Every structure is written in C-alpha cells, then in structure tokens.
Amino acid sequence: MAAKLAIYGGKGTVPDGLIQPWPQVTLSDKDAIAEVMASEKITEQQRIQSEGLAKEWAEYMSVQYCIPVNSGTAALHLCVAGVGIEPGDEVIIPAFTFWATAAAVLHHNAIPVFVDIDPITYCIDPNDIEAKITERTRAIMPVHIHSGIATILPNIWMKLTALKRLLRQKRVNRCITTMLSVSPEALGLDIPARTLREKVQAALRAEGVPTGQWQRLPVPSQKIFQNRIGYGIGCPWRCNQSTVEYKTKDYPRTVEFIDSHCYIFDVNPPNDFELMSCYVEAFHKVMDQLDAVLDVPDNT
C-alpha cells in the first residue's frame, strides 16, 4: 500500500534538517574576512581586495582585464554602458529572463524590447528577433538560462551589420536549481498545465521538497512595463518619445513555459546524493498517487 501523502497528513519524505543552505560558508571564507578586519589599514581594504580579485580572476580567465562589481545586475549594466548604449536606444532581450536583464537596460535610460522564447531552449527565439529590429535597435542581449543556450541565426547577424553597436552579453546560470516540467497531455489529463503544476508543487512541498517559480509573469507583463511608469514623468519611454508597447499576448510561449514549469531548489553542494535520493522518493510518492494529489482542495 502506498504511503500516505504528507499533504493529507502523512509523514514527509525529506527529513527535517537534511537540506543544507546555500551558499556554503567555509572556514577559509571566515578566515579571509577575519584577515581583512584585523588589517591596520582597513579603510584601504576595498581597493586592495578589489584590485587583487581583478588581477587573479583575469589571470584565471586568461584575459587582460577584469572589473569586480557587487552583483550580476551591475555587471550587465556595465556591459550596456561599455558598448555605448545611449538614452532612447533599444535593446532586444528575451521575455523570460531574470528582472536584472531589463533593469540593466532601464538603468541606462534605454528601452527594453522583448522577444518570445524558443520552445526547445527556453531562451530568446532567433526567428522572432528580426521583426523587433527598428532604427533605434542598438543591441541584442541573448540570455543563456537554466543550462539552455540561446542561438542567434546567421541571417540575423548579417542584418545587424549596419548597426553601430552590438552587445553579445552572456549570462551563465549557477547550478542551484533544476527545472520541473509538467504536461497534462502526456498524462492523459484534460486540465490546464498551470493547475497540474500547482497541485504537484503543493504535494512536493508537503513532502519536504522545496519548489518555486523564478518568474510568475513574463517580464514585459510586470507593472513597470505595463504602465510604463519608469521614473519621473515616465522615463525612459516618455522622455525619449518611445512608442514601444508591451502586450502579454505577444509572448505566448513564455506564458506557456511559466504555466508548465517550476524549479526544485537546493540541488547544490553541500547537499549530496542522500538528499537527492529523498527527492527521487518524493517524486515517485507524489506521481504514483496523482489522482489523490489532484483531489486536494485549492489553497491547501
């Protein structure tokens, strides 16, 4: 007889305390901080540590220069500024991405232009890029996300040769999540993918498997773009006479992807195969009793 689902009051699969948090703070991390704090010239440590990191990372990457920044958002903004994007310029980015991709463009008073995603890679769809190119287009930011690789068709690059600047900024995701995809059709179910995902997520969380979503809406469907509020009197759109619009219906594959996918967290060191084995057991337990999972009342 199948074990009682935790969402119905049964015992959870993942033991309390088994999941270790990320990032893992090691003794060497603590020693490095203590060394800085013990320095006689602590006010100079920001420069010393930053210059040291820049030199060591440049050597490791076999490049001439490296500029340390405080976040991935700042790194993207640095790239936007570095290639000469100016106020009112348009930068093409995927509709499914982390908010920072669009924020880096907005921070430089430029205009994000969104493109729907490819149903295979979940990255920007190269076939949809050309239609979004205007006389204001200055860059494309093809984000590589969740181990998916963005591909740009050669004919798109050829058509961009007349543009003065082109940003090919790549982001590498950290391996701290894994993606879960649900398909009602594959299971012979006549229900929306979002309903199935939410039910399975709730059951897995009850078993102790942490799940969540990276984005609940396509980035262009978020309020800042729907209302084009930006800052001040509506910049960067109004102050640059931009006519760019953001309609959710223009990104159907992004909506479908968000409805049918979620993420499993803590699949990273220091967590090991003991935890992964519990995850697998929880998946079997939930999916083997899918009818019962679907019968759980909403908001349980």
Which terms would index this structure?
alpha/beta; three-stranded parallel beta sheet; three-stranded antiparallel beta sheet; 10 helices; 34% helix; flat
* Average pLDDT metric: 88
How large is the radius of gyration? 23 Å
Alpha-carbon distance between the two ends: 24 Å
- Structural class comes to alpha/beta
Write out the strand line-up for the largest beta sheet, numbering strands in chain order. Answer: 2-1-3
Q: Considering DSSP H and I runs of 4 or more, what fraction of the residues is helical?
A: 25-40%
Bin the strand percentage. 5-15%
Number of helices: 10
Order of secondary-structure elements? HHHEHEEHEHEHHEHH
The 3D shape can be described as flat
Q: Give the strand tally.
A: 6
Give the uncertain stretches in residue-range form.
155-175
Please summarize the sheet with the most strands: 3 strands, parallel
Written overview of the protein:
The protein is α/β, with parallel strands linked by helices. Helix content is 34%, strand content 9%. It is built from 10 helices and 6 strands; from the N terminus they run H-H-H-E-H-E-E-H-E-H-E-H-H-E-H-H. It has helices at residues 27-37, 45-61, 72-82, 99-107, 154-159, 193-206, 223-226, 252-260, 273-287, 290-294, and strands at residues 90-94, 111-115, 137-140, 177-181, 211-212, 261-265. It has a 3-stranded parallel beta sheet, covered by helices on one side. Helix 3 (72-82) crosses helix 4 (99-107) and helix 6 (193-206) packs parallel to helix 8 (252-260). The protein is flat. The model is unreliable at 155-175 (pLDDT under 50).
